[in-house]
Design brief:
Elements lengths: L4 E2 L9 E2 L1 E4 L1 H5 L8 H12 L3 E4 L5 H10 L5 E4 L4 E4 L5 E4 L4 H14 L4 E4 L6 E5 L9 H6 L4 E4 L12 E6 L1 H15 L3 E8 L4 E8 L4 H12 L6 E5 L5 H6 L2 E4 L5 H6 L11 H10 L5
Helix pairs in contact: 2-10, 4-6
């Protein structure tokens, strides 16, 4: 039976939380992609209290599910910015939303005109296959990630010829300024035909630009999972640090933002936690959701 816990840490948010969704990179994980011990302990406190914990990431299943397992979670996890939700034990999709093949081809064409090729990510029933075009030099900034994902990569002669109906996400990578310019170009070209979200790391001049079906986002995925679990929107909390978390933070009853988030996000969601390297998630849980005296 799911329990409810009063939020005493913030007098502005005296509500009962039954589900907590949290981002991975820059939120639950530190900058070395590790789960700080305090965060692990706090998540286990949530589980012990009967509160549903749902990691929500832009990563595909094959690159993110291991963190859910490390937390000891047995429920659902949100992947690819909300395009996919899967069970962590049976590995079966709870729901997923693919992009129309014609839309994928339009995005590839726009990227090519801009001078950058994307990665297509599909295969919702498996680990998440990465489709790349055999174009030397195009994916240099993703070298480490691609090395660790090699078994799930399929090289194609022409991404623009893809006709698959299970592509969930089209992802570009580059410098922050270049990806902001590309995002503006794509929004003008595509209008409301696609959801466009960015994840920025200014200190590394690195930005990931993701496009999904126009209905997709971490926020809609959170609300859909909450409905499946019988949890009211006001009984949800969300913790995040980047622009791809914005709609999830807006959808949740309680929004908590990391101290390493941009000033823009901190201004929009003013309940700010410590930095991800300082166990900010644990502090947020023990202050706002499961208050403890220490």
């Amino acid at each position: 039976r799911r329990s409810s816990v009063d939020v005493w840490g913030d007098p502005m948010t005296h509500r009962k939380i039954q589900l907590v969704a949290m981002d991975l990179d820059g939120t639950l994980l530190d900058r070395q992609y590790r789960i700080p011990p305090a965060n692990l302990a706090a998540v286990r406190d949530l589980v012990d209290a009967g509160i549903e914990v749902v990691p929500a990431t832009g990563r595909r299943f094959g690159a993110g599910a291991s963190y859910g397992a490390a937390l000891g979670l047995r429920g659902a996890m949100i992947f690819q910015n909300g395009a996919l939700a899967k069970g962590l034990t049976d590995r079966l999709p709870l729901f997923w939303q693919a992009m129309a093949p014609a839309l994928v081809r339009r995005i590839v064409a726009e990227g090519r005109r801009f001078g950058v090729l994307p990665i297509l990510i599909g295969d919702p029933r498996g680990p998440g296959t990465l489709f790349l075009e055999d174009a030397p030099g195009q994916y240099r900034r993703l070298g480490r990630y691609l090395e660790t994902s090699w078994s799930d990569i399929r090289m194609l002669r022409n991404l623009g010829a893809v006709r698959r109906e299970d592509i969930l996400q089209v992802s570009f990578c580059g410098g922050v300024a270049a990806m902001r310019e590309l995002a503006a170009t794509l929004r003008q070209a595509l209008g409301d035909d696609a959801a466009i979200t960015g994840t920025e790391y200014p200190e590394r001049d690195l930005s990931l630009l993701d496009l999904m079906h126009h209905t997709v986002g971490k926020g809609p995925a959170l609300l859909r999972l909450a409905r499946l679990l019988g949890v009211a929107p006001g009984a949800t909390a969300a913790i995040g640090d980047n622009f791809n978390d914005r709609d999830m933070l807006a959808a949740a009853g309680l929004a908590l933002v990391m101290g390493n988030a941009s000033f823009e996000l901190q201004a929009e969601f003013p309940r700010v936690l410590p930095d991800c390297d300082a166990g900010g998630v644990a502090w947020g849980i023990w202050t706002h959701i499961l208050p403890r005296p220490d």
